[in-house]
Specification:
Blueprint (H helix, E strand, L loop, with lengths): L8 E5 L7 H12 L6 E4 L2 H23 L25 H8 L4 H5 L4 E8 L4 E6 L6 H11 L9 E3 L2 E5 L1 H4 L3 H6 L4 E5 L15 H16 L14 E2 L2 E6 L10 H4 L4 H21 L27
Parallel strand pairs: 1-2, 1-7, 2-3, 7-9
Antiparallel strand pairs: 3-4, 3-6, 5-6, 8-9
Helix pairs in contact: 1-2, 1-10, 2-10
Length: 311
């Protein structure tokens, strides 16, 4: 950030399907402490949460998450979108229509918040960012927000101005660098995939081994952009304080069935966990009270991957 520039707090909302409910609880705690974003950069489920937040704040997010209902009923193939003659297993329309009942795209477009979404442009073969400052209309914003959570193979690619886009979370799920490029003076990473796994000394069966392998891949891919960023030991990156709020080991590991379980009861449990995890982490760092500029540089909750040498 250039000298004399106004402080700019950027929230990073990572992806993780139904685990995104954890972000709702974390945002609730931050909001109660007066810690609110000037900008949000998001991927996958974080795109939905960013749009919900810009549409009506945390209470509106809670209403949406508990009101959408079971996500299992939203996964339906169609004549056009199916695994036989289409590019996906399911149509995206049922899920998008359920989510968009709670999103005011005109309000998001003109929000004082700068919103930036990670997408993969399949036509150009590159990762890109779409923002509410760069689109031409609320309709374009709606289209690109859908692209932000169009999980490849599960949902079809989204076409926008002749090019094809999908969820960018597989390439850059927790885009810390984009937050820095947006001029952040302080970054809050709201990751929904735990970056710490419980220690595993051995494997009794092949199933345990393959399960552990899936957990490690999920932990790493799900936190790309954070665990591979060399955050300094004082908890800063390029001089910018970075606070990471994430689930504990209780929610670690890869579970396909629970990943798409969007029941009201499970959603409430994740919201409660997000609130508790944020409270614990900020209290540990002495950030429990409302704050404007960053306090003392925090100690990182988790060191980035590939920092440790093999013993």
């Amino acid at each position: 950030m250039s000298a004399g520039a106004a402080p700019r707090r950027v929230f990073v909302l990572g992806g993780g399907a139904s685990l995104g409910a954890h972000q709702v609880g974390a945002l609730r705690y931050l909001d109660e402490r007066g810690i609110r974003p000037d900008a949000i950069v998001a991927s996958s489920i974080g795109v939905i949460n960013a749009c919900l937040y810009a549409s009506g704040g945390v209470e509106h997010m809670e209403e949406a998450w508990t009101g959408i209902g079971s996500i299992a009923t939203k996964f339906r193939p169609s004549l056009r979108h199916n695994p036989i003659s289409g590019f996906s297993l399911f149509s995206m329309d049922p899920l998008a229509e359920a989510v968009e009942r709670y999103i005011d795209f005109e309000r998001v477009l003109h929000s004082p918040l700068d919103l930036s979404f990670v997408v993969l442009n399949l036509s150009r073969g590159e990762g890109q960012f779409a923002s509410n400052r760069g689109v031409r209309s609320a309709r374009d914003l709606r289209t690109l927000s859908r692209a932000g959570y169009a999980i490849p193979m599960l949902f079809p690619p989204v076409r926008h101005r002749g090019e094809y886009y999908v969820d960018g979370g597989f390439a850059w799920n927790v885009p810390v660098l984009q937050a820095i490029e947006m001029g952040a003076s302080e970054v809050f990473v709201l990751a929904v995939i735990a970056s710490e796994l419980p220690y595993k000394k051995g494997f009794r069966t092949p199933l345990e081994y393959y399960g552990r392998l899936a957990d490690v891949m999920w932990r790493t891919i799900g936190n790309v952009g954070y665990v591979t960023t060399r955050i300094d030991r004082d908890g800063s990156y390029q001089g910018v304080p970075v606070t990471v709020l994430q689930p504990t080991e209780q929610h670690a590991g890869f579970s396909p069935l629970s990943l798409f379980s969007w029941s009201a009861a499970r959603t409430r449990r994740l919201i409660t966990a997000g609130y508790s995890d944020a409270k614990r982490e900020l209290s540990r760092r002495g950030r429990g009270a409302a704050s404007g500029a960053a306090a003392q540089p925090p100690v990182p909750a988790v060191e980035p991957a590939f920092r440790h040498e093999v013993a």
